[in-house]
Amino acid sequence: MKKALLAALCALAAGCSTSGQVDPDTLQIATAPLTCANRTECDMWWKRAQTWVTQESSYGLQSVSDTLIQTAGPDGGKRALAYQITKTDNKDGTATIGFAAHCDSAMGCKPNPWEAGASFKRFVRGGAANASPAGQQPASAPAATTQLETGPAQSTHAPTGEPVTQ
């Protein structure tokens, strides 16, 4: 009986450990820096960032400025993501947009923060694959030039709620 229970618990733990895996392509998009090339592009991307957060967040906007978009939340025990988006001007005239998402649930976040980060970055860049984390189709945004980017680290949180550097 004890061996059967132990075997069942091991199988359950193995099933849980693989269910939180993130597709490598999604992870690559989510961790790539989001750096706009000039003021015009940065202004357009910042507006898209606010649109995405407004459409995707279960929480209302708490703060909106030229450098911060932040939602309320997370509420205790809820799986819904709260967002904090930052814009930092770089010395070369570019700007880096940071993305952070977190929830307050021991059961993990819904949507997955990595998938939300990838969705956010696709939407802000204006790419063709603008699927939202919930699988809904967001409003269309005009296309923008996509380029390889380098920049400072950005932070988000793992599905467990722990901070992760992007």
Automatic annotation (TrEMBL):
Residues 128-166 are annotated as: Disordered. Residues 1-22 form the signal peptide. Residues 128-147 have a biased composition (Low complexity). Residues 148-166 have a biased composition (Polar residues). Keywords: Signal. The keyword Transferase does not apply. This is Lipoprotein. It comes from Paraburkholderia saeva. The lineage of its organism: Bacteria, Pseudomonadati, Pseudomonadota, Betaproteobacteria, Burkholderiales.
